[in-house]
Amino acid sequence: MIEEKVELEAGSAPESKLWRGGPSQILNFWVYVGNALLGLLMIVAGVGLNVLMPDSLWGYYLMPLALLPMVHAGWSWLVLSAQTYELSSQRIRFKSGVLARRTDDLELYRVRDLTIEQPLVYRMLGLGNLVMETSDRSHPRMVIPAVPEPQALLDMVRENVEERRRVTRTREVDFDGGDEVA
């Protein structure tokens, strides 16, 4: 049995999970529409070929190909479903990948600015993108796309960013760089 010890910083509480979610399938809307139309077109073409050329087998060969757009739509659904974001009291963890998995962590004290983007369709559906500008080199801008109740998530992230900065005694310093000292 492997025992894992977590060393706590002075005055900090153990890491706790606060939120878990992923993007809405609305991101795949046009993929689904396009694949449905392509599949329907292939079926109509197959039936049309059978009617126009009854002695030919081309129509029968074309109709099973109508399954390919359905496979593509299913794969798109699976790829988006495999994307998960986990917010804890110390970090945001992003997992992606169906066959091969990738996990990225962003420490909360590195978040510099938070923004919500809500295009019209997202607003009508109660969704939004949470955009985080960070000081992290590998993730200078991290977007959690098409999540429900984005304002509640932003408030949760902001509250925990401030707490992590307080615990780690992290301060952000902005340099203007325009004036020279004589």
From TrEMBL:
Keywords: Membrane, Transmembrane, Transmembrane helix
Membrane-spanning residues: 29-52, 58-80
Ranges of residues in domain YdbS-like PH: 83-153
InterPro entries, A to Z: YdbS-like_PH
Entries under PANTHER family matching the protein: BLL0215 PROTEIN
Protein name per the record: Bacterial membrane flanked domain protein
UniProt organism field: Mucisphaera calidilacus
